[in-house]
Design brief:
By secondary structure, this protein is mainly alpha-helical. The chain is built from 11 helices and no strands.
């Protein structure tokens, strides 16, 4: 089985594809989500998902594809939902600095508490860790592009300088992923207040330096 995140087209197009999914596809993805949360990725099969969704194995293949495609589609849907949550958390904030702080806090809390991604990190770290490290290229690219777009939009709104936000966005994504992979640190990020203090002290200056 290929590690999640290897489908560059799916991940890099996560924000661009706004077409609503049909009810049957959602039914299958709901079943996949429950299956993966309960038994993990390695122990789950297309047949397992089909039984949960109360459809045939052939239907799953026709609608989504093989197991790798099913995993990618399931994680992609969670990614879309995650982006909506982060955008909602920062939308009303007046400055890009405030949005960086709120976004970092939201990301840490969301991933840690996420029943699928956080659960898989605890249940099957050997499967999920490559997705966030060695084979995370497409996922990192998608997250970097998302954050760079938001930084670019905020600077345009505030009348800031036209600089390339991609390097800063990548640094922020890599820093965040490192804390998710290994929470043991001299930085205390156990709650939202401390996470916010860290972001304001260490991440916000990255914006100014750029």
């Amino acid at each position: 089985m290929a590690a999640p995140g290897t489908d560059r087209t799916l991940l890099s197009g996560a924000l661009g594809d706004t077409q609503p999914s049909d009810a049957l596809t959602e039914q299958i993805l709901d079943a996949a989500r429950e299956q993966f949360m309960t038994f993990g990725l390695r122990r789950s099969t297309v047949d397992d998902v089909a039984r949960r969704a109360k459809v045939s194995r052939v239907t799953v293949y026709r609608r989504i594809g093989n197991k790798d495609s099913l995993i990618a589609a399931c994680l992609l849907r969670e990614y879309r939902r995650f982006v909506v949550e982060v955008d909602a958390a920062v939308a009303a904030l007046p400055t890009v600095e405030d949005r960086i702080v709120a976004g970092f806090v939201t990301v840490l809390r969301h991933i840690r508490e996420h029943p699928l991604v956080g659960g898989l990190l605890r249940l099957e770290p050997e499967v999920m860790l490559p997705f966030l490290t060695l084979e995370s290229g497409p996922a990192l690219l998608a997250m970097r592009e998302y954050l760079a777009d938001r930084l670019r939009e905020a600077r345009r709104t505030e009348g800031g300088p036209e600089t390339d936000p991609a390097p800063v966005a990548e640094l922020m994504v890599r820093i965040t992923v490192s804390f998710l992979l290994n929470p043991e640190s001299c930085f205390e990020l156990d709650d939202d207040e401390r996470s916010g203090e860290f972001a304001r002290r260490y991440l916000v200056p990255l914006i100014s330096s750029a």
